[in-house]
Write a structure and sequence with these properties.
This protein has 5 helices and 2 strands. By secondary structure, it is mainly alpha-helical. The protein folds into 2 domains: about 60 residues, Winged helix-like DNA-binding domain superfamily/Winged helix DNA-binding domain (Arc Repressor Mutant, subunit A); about 45 residues.
């Protein structure tokens, strides 16, 4: 499914959360699709099942997945009300990051190109469109 960098300073569970969020946002994992079981993913990635459980719990707290007792974890379908709250939070974070980027000398054109590149890669298109 994906690989984690065990030498990274970032905790493994955070890397796992980021990778799964990326798969969900890029619609590789579809709404209501079942995620691999904790045990199976722990074997695949050769990491402690508690690490997987912690990542799944974090994803559930953030609203990306939901759990059903005895059945497993599933991708949460996007909900408009939750999305608007998340959009507001993301815009606030972006505001801070954009100001910091401009302060550090990144040009407006470079920022715009970064956004265009991310948009193109999300849609599977070529960069620079």
């Amino acid at each position: 499914m994906f690989e984690l960098d065990t030498r990274s300073r970032k905790p493994i569970y955070e890397q796992l959360v980021e990778k799964l969020k990326e798969l969900i946002m890029n619609e590789v994992l579809k709404p209501d699709e079942q995620l691999p079981s904790v045990r199976m993913l722990a074997q695949q990635l050769t990491i402690n099942p508690n690490t997987i459980q912690k990542a799944y719990r974090e994803l559930e707290n953030q609203g990306f997945i939901y759990s059903q007792k005895g059945k497993g974890s599933f991708v949460n379908p996007s909900e408009e009300s939750k999305d608007s709250e998340k959009i507001t939070a993301v815009k606030g974070e972006l505001d801070k990051l954009i100001l910091e980027a401009l302060y550090l000398g990144i040009t407006v054109e470079e920022l715009i190109q970064l956004v265009k590149d991310k948009d193109a890669s999300k849609r599977g298109g070529a960069k620079g469109d």
